[in-house]
Specification:
heterodimer; A: 551 residues; alpha+beta; Sulfite Reductase Hemoprotein, domain 2; Sulfite Reductase Hemoprotein, domain 1; 4 domains; six-stranded mixed β-sheet; five-stranded antiparallel β-sheet; 18 helices; globular; B: 96 residues; 5 strands
């Protein structure tokens, strides 16, 4: 894992001191809320419905056991004993007191963490494939580049007051698990003809009230030029992005209004000016950062684990878990394991302090102390010997974390919604819980196969409803919660925005409506091998519309 | 229309309600019930002074009704602020 250098440690420590002073002055009444709000937001502190909320950055979703233990400690000491992992691979505490935030930030700084740039019109936490450095299908590990982008973007003076927030995601595999086409900039690490590393650069994706799939602006930017190229995009956006209308300020609108060809021309022009200058990425420097992400000390193992296979044969629960929650690793005899934060009927993304400690301990004992947060709101143990899966499964079960549903219909993404969020119009969590219970029987989940339900409580789309195979958007209709259903959304390399299928439903009808959609799929699919998304793309919306609303 | 004044306490962000004595308390049933425009104007002015004094923020009048001696906000959002998240179970101590 990356370790802070002197510069990182200094700026984080300085920021804690600055913000502590600002909080003190605010509490003493020396500065007003209008003066304080931008300062607290720059440090991840929001005011939500019930309390302040602190959003902590987890760079590219990577955590050590030490860091996870510290998050558990903070949850226990300063909050109500739990935290919420988000679709931005961040962690949110729902109940911190403002007066305690300086102490929390000081505790985070001790384990090389902070909440800087988790809000505001700046470059936010860079996200990455949660199987980075572990997946079998990767061209190269995206994390070194996510880290290089983090260093470049942290406290960047030119990009601290952009027209709007700016999100970057990086994947190292052609199969996109980081939803790069739904980001302001999406990067895919590639190998050139000569084997050298470069990036396909996508620009202008996003969700919110105007969902758009990113356009490819450059199919291959060599490694040495990537910072300069991204910088050029930011400069063009900073100059031409709209500041007159908050709803039209994201780069996706600029791409849409300017056209990708003209935008490419502007970026290339800027790039030509700065290419080869201070933003060049020398091979030695890339190598230096890459060294931080060297694979752990794997031992030579056979590709299959006789031990795990034998244990699975005698334990149906373990067998099901192994089928559902393991992901193929690049190293023979190893696997990546999804720790589902989606217990049947529970709250997507929530973990108690005890569960965080349990995952930290499990990672320490069996998985090289490494943990990831996925944008699907689960935790991942990226490097685990197949032989150790039975013990890890048992330990997870003891912590209430052995739900076998990664990628299944109950692996629901949901934003905090009206239960917590000041922006929400409708609740998300109770809907997620009810859907999870409706479809939670193992046989039912197995019958349905891979199907994502994603729920947002408002048009800002933190719950990624636009790219759910089944998306649900909560709105307020004359004071009542009302839910629109969209179908066919998808976040990967064949990204698509879901189609709104028809009039929405009140809360008491939406669960049945989703079940009608699912049953229609089961009835019409050509075989159990045809996924919901494939079937929807073949059939179109008509049969689903008819099932929901009649002919 | 029956209204009460709500805000968030500056130091911890907790949801609070304004009493007839001008205090800010956690319990909604202790809020001052206001059904008179002039009375509301006076109360809001006093509450804004508490915003200036950095005791509370985001002061807002909210519509309520009374049921069996209790004050209940009309809007779901305010009921959630008053009585907590409606989630079935979570990791909060004492949550069911």
């Amino acid at each position: 894992m990356y370790r802070y250098d002197e510069f990182d440690a200094t700026f984080v420590r300085q920021r804690v001191a600055q913000f502590s002073d600002q909080v003190e002055r605010r509490l003493r009444g020396e500065i007003t809320e209008d003066e304080f709000r931008p300062l607290r937001l720059m440090n991840g502190v929001y005011l939500q419905l019930h309390a302040y909320m602190l959003r902590i950055a987890i760079p590219y979703g990577t955590l050590s056991s030490t860091q996870m233990r510290r998050l558990a400690h903070i949850a226990r000491t300063y909050d109500k004993g739990f935290g919420h992992f988000t679709t931005r691979q961040n962690l949110q505490f729902n109940w911190p007191a403002l007066k305690d935030v300086p102490a929390i930030l000081a505790e985070l700084a001790e384990v090389e963490m902070h909440a800087i740039q988790t809000s505001g019109n700046c470059i936010r936490n860079v996200t990455a494939d949660h199987f980075a450095g572990a997946a079998f299908d990767e061209a190269d590990d995206p994390r070194p580049y996510a880290e290089i982008l983090r260093q470049w973007s942290s406290l960047h003076p030119e990009f601290s007051f952009l027209p709007r927030k700016f999100k970057i995601a990086v994947t190292g595999a052609a199969h996109d698990r980081a939803a790069i086409r739904l980001h302001d900039i999406g990067l895919e690490v590639k190998r050139g003809d000569d084997g050298g590393i470069g990036f396909a650069v996508h620009v202008g994706g996003g969700q919110g009230r105007t969902p758009m799939i990113a356009r490819e602006i450059n199919p291959f930017v060599p490694e040495a030029d990537i910072l300069a190229y991204v910088d050029a995009i930011l400069r063009v956006y900073n100059l031409f992005g709209r500041r007159d209308n908050k709803f039209k300020a994201r780069i996706k609108i600029l791409v849409h209004e300017t056209g990708i060809d003209e935008l490419r021309r502007l970026v290339e022009e800027e790039f030509a000016q700065i290419r080869g200058g201070v933003l060049g990425l020398p091979a030695e420097e890339a190598e230096r950062i890459r060294a931080y992400f060297a694979p752990p000390a794997f031992t030579a193992r056979p590709a299959a684990s006789a031990r795990l296979d034998a244990a699975r044969a005698g334990n149906p629960a373990l067998d099901r878990f192994s089928r559902q929650n393991l992901h193929r690793h690049r190293t023979p005899g190893y696997t990546s394991l999804t720790v589902s934060l989606k217990p049947i009927g529970g709250i997507p993304g929530d973990a108690s302090a005890d569960q965080m400690d349990a995952v930290a301990a499990i990672a320490e004992r069996w998985a090289f102390s490494e943990i990831r947060v996925s944008h699907e709101q689960n935790l991942i143990l990226p490097h685990l010997a197949l032989d150790d899966v039975p013990e890890v499964f048992a330990a997870l079960a003891e912590a209430g974390l052995a739900t076998a549903n990664a990628g299944a219909i109950t692996d629901i993404i949901a934003c905090p919604g009206l239960d917590y969020c000041a922006l929400a119009n409708a609740r998300s969590i109770p809907l997620a819980s009810a859907l999870s219970e409706r479809f939670g029987a193992p046989d039912r989940q197995d019958e349905i196969g891979p199907l994502s339900i994603k729920i947002s409580g408002c048009i800002n789309a933190c719950g990624h409803h636009h790219v759910g195979h089944i998306g649900i958007l909560g709105v307020d209709r004359k004071g009542e919660e009302f839910y629109q259903i969209s179908l066919g959304g998808n976040p990967d390399e064949s990204a698509s925005i879901g189609d709104i299928i028809g009039p929405g439903f009140f809360a008491d009808g939406v669960i049945d409506a989703v079940e009608t959609v699912v049953d229609t799929y089961l009835k019409l699919r050509t075989s159990p091998g045809e996924t919901f998304l494939a079937a929807y793309r073949r059939l179109g919306e008509a049969p689903f519309k008819e099932a929901l609303y009649g002919a | 229309m029956l209204e009460i004044l709500t805000a968030n306490r500056l130091s911890d962000g907790d949801v609070v309600y304004r009493t007839a004595a001008g205090d800010w308390v956690d319990t909604i049933d202790d809020a001052e019930l206001i059904d008179d425009t002039d009375q509301l104007t006076v109360a809001v002015a006093a509450a804004q002074a508490d915003v200036k004094a950095s005791r509370v923020l985001d002061v807002a009048p909210i519509a309520v009704e009374t049921a069996e001696g209790h004050i209940v906000p009309k809007r779901l959002r305010e009921r959630i602020r008053a009585f907590g998240p409606t989630v079935k179970s979570d990791h909060r101590p004492g949550a069911v």
